[in-house]
Structures are given as structure tokens and as C-alpha cells.
Design brief:
With 321 residues, the protein is α/β, with parallel strands linked by helices. The chain has 11 helices and 12 strands. The chain starts with a strand and ends with a helix. The structure holds nicotinamide-adenine-dinucleotide.
Length: 321
């Protein structure tokens, strides 16, 4: 199996080597190859990601992705948004687990407010929120399949204000009724608060692109911070695994970033590849290190990224025996 590795920018360059080390130890049969993309590449070459890199990503069985910096420059096109669109990675899966709750946010990943249909004029700027039947049906089907193997579905939307969300909501309900999945719904603003106050009420939450982006950062609070949350970007032909967090320029280069989100993303990659045992070993190794009281700075500890990673790798070696 060939894994493309995009470390990207900032802490992507620190946490992805940890995740890669874990995968290398567990699965010596995996072949890794680097793909350079991100703001650093843009500063050096004038292109953040080229057609050649997109082809290299297409050729991989799976992609392990760190994070990229996106400057607030209207001429700069986000690398990760481009990859999601080009590889048609329509389902963004973000599990959030903790004491007494276990939810999965399923975010539509290719359209909505991130469709990239934008105009900037002197006195106004417009972003078109385009939501299609095809895009809504496939994300709703994905979420219903997942909810069918778990408990229930919550549809997050703002249908009281946005006609495009009436459209999205109705398609989600159609799919839930078709598949017999129990469903409820919530306005996304109220849902953000309720997820924090009563997380145990939620199982699978399906929502549109920007709302899902915000809701998963909100839910990160429950898990203990952005450094802990993994995600998968799934399409029919390709799959990319990345921490939910960004390149964190405020801490980059200091060996303080929490590598757990990257490690859990590697576990999601193995699970997608059918290796439940390997995924379980990574998750178990992370838990054992935390049980020993070892933590990075964001969790109130003093371990560096590398040191935490080395402990996880040591535990993987033990669990593997
Ligand atoms: P961020 O996730 O990079 O950081 C938010 C806060 O969380 C920061 O204080 C950071 O130090 C902290 N944090 C994040 N990950 C952490 C970790 N692993 N360990 C410890 N602390 C961690 O979000 P931001 O500051 O809004 O964005 C920074 C850059 O990242 C921007 O250029 C943004 O566009 C980009 N970004 C990229 C992606 C992606 O590549 N998928 C996702 C989000 C943001």
C-alpha cells in the first residue's frame, strides 16, 4: 500500500513525522512518499500545489496530511480545499469522544460556502453558497449508513433563514426515512451550544461545509482541545487523513504541539484500510501514555512533541508483541 505524506506547514512538519513513525513500526509493508504542498512551497516557488502533486496524491492508496497555512490573501487558493475538490473527498468525518459521549460529525466537504464561487469588487464581496442535490444526497447517504451502524442522526442546519438549508435538510430527511435511521434536527447555532451542554444526546451529526467546520472546532472543546481531534476526508476513490487543527504558527517550531490528533488520524487511516488491529494498537498506545500522566503543554504537561511521540512508539512496540 502506498501512502502519500503531505507534512505541509507549521506544526504539520512536527506531528506528521510522529504519526508516520507509528505507522512504519506497525506496518513495515507500507510504502511512504512525500508530496510537498503549502504556503512554504508557495513562498519558495510561487505555487502552493501543482498539477504534478495532485497527480501524485491521486496515485496513492491513502494520504496522510498535516496542515497548511492559508494566508488571508484573496489571490491565494487554499491547498486543502483544492485537494478535497480535485479528489472529490466529499465526506469529512470528525469523531469526538470523551467521558460519557461519543459523536461523529459528518461534514459535507466539497460545496456550500467553500464552493470557491466568489467575486471581490471595490465595494462588495460575494461568496456563493451552492448546495446541490448530488452533494447533499451522497453526504446524507454516508451519514445514514454510519448512523445505521450506531444510534441516530442529527441534521444541523439553518433552515429557518437559508433556503439552501431547507433544500439540504429535506434531502437528509428523505435519506433518513428511506434507510429507517432515527433522526432529529437542530439549528446550527443552538446546536453548537447544546453539543457543549449535553454531548451525550448526540451520535452522528450531518451538516454542511462551513457549519461542520465550526461545529467540529466547538466540539473540540469537549475532547480537550484541537490537538486531540483526528479527521478523515473520504471520497469514492480516495481518502485523506488529517488532524482537525491547522498549522498553528503561534507554536510551530517549538516542539510543543500535541501529536495525538495526527496519531489518531493514522489510526483512522489503518481502520479505513481494514486494519482494525493496527488502529486499535495506536489508540491503545496513546491511552497508555496518557494513563502514565505524560502530556504535552496544551494538556497541562511538559512533554515535547518528539518525547510524547517516542513514548507512544515504545507502547506500540510493547502492544505489538
Ligand atoms: P490552528 O488549529 O492552527 O490553531 C488554533 C489554536 O490551537 C492555536 O492556539 C494553536 O496553537 C492551538 N493548536 C492547534 N493544534 C494544536 C496542537 N496539535 N497542539 C497544541 N496546540 C494546538 O488554527 P488557526 O490558528 O485558526 O489557523 C492557523 C493556520 O492554519 C491558518 O493559516 C489556517 O488557515 C490554517 N488551517 C489549516 C487547516 C488544514 O490544513 N486543514 C485547518 C485549520 C486551519
Amino acid at each position: 500500500m502506498r501512502i502519500a505524506v503531505v507534512e505541509g506547514d507549521g506544526i504539520g512538519k512536527e506531528v506528521i513525522p510522529v504519526a508516520r513513525k507509528a505507522l512504519e513500526l506497525l506496518r513495515p509493508d507500507l510504502e511512504f512518499f512525500p508530496v510537498e504542498a503549502g504556503y512554504g512551497r508557495w513562498q519558495r516557488t510561487g505555487t502552493a500545489i501543482g498539477d504534478e502533486e495532485i497527480s501524485a496524491l491521486r496515485s496513492a492508496d491513502f494520504i496522510l496530511f498535516g496542515a497548511v497555512t492559508t494566508p488571508p490573501d484573496p489571490d491565494y487558493r487554499s491547498v486543502i480545499v483544492r485537494i478535497r475538490k480535485e479528489l472529490d473527498l466529499y465526506a469529512n468525518i470528525r469523531p469526538v469522544k470523551g467521558e460519557g459521549f461519543d459523536m461523529v460529525i459528518v461534514r459535507e466537504n466539497t460545496e456550500g460556502l467553500y464552493s470557491g464561487i466568489e467575486t471581490v469588487e471595490e465595494d462588495r464581496a460575494c461568496t456563493l453558497r451552492c448546495i446541490t442535490r448530488k452533494g447533499s444526497e451522497r453526504i446524507a447517504r454516508y451519514a445514514c449508513r454510519l448512523a445505521g451502524s450506531r444510534r441516530d442522526l442529527t441534521i444541523g442546519h439553518k433552515a429557518n433563514v437559508l433556503k439552501s438549508d431547507v433544500f439540504f435538510r429535506n434531502i437528509c430527511i428523505e435519506q433518513a426515512e428511506l434507510t429507517g435511521v432515527p433522526w432529529k434536527e437542530g439549528y446550527i447555532d443552538a446546536l453548537c451550544l447544546d453539543v457543549l451542554q449535553r454531548p451525550q444526546r448526540y451520535d452522528v451529526i450531518v451538516t454542511t461545509n462551513l457549519f461542520g467546520d465550526i461545529l467540529s472546532d466547538v466540539a473540540a472543546y469537549l475532547a480537550g482541545g484541537l490537538g486531540l481531534l483526528p479527521s478523515a476526508n473520504i471520497g469514492d476513490r480516495h481518502a485523506l487523513f488529517e488532524p482537525v487543527h491547522g498549522s498553528a504558527p503561534d507554536i510551530a517550531g517549538n516542539n510543543v504541539a500535541n501529536p495525538i490528533a495526527a496519531l489518531q488520524s493514522a489510526a483512522m487511516l489503518l481502520r479505513q484500510a481494514g486494519d482494525d488491529r493496527g488502529a486499535g494498537i495506536i489508540e491503545g498506545a496513546v491511552s497508555r501514555v496518557l494513563d502514565r500522566g505524560i502530556r504535552t503543554m496544551d494538556m497541562g504537561g511538559t512533554a515535547g512533541t518528539k518525547e510524547f511521540g517516542d513514548e507512544v512508539v515504545r507502547e506500540i512496540a510493547t502492544l505489538q508483541k
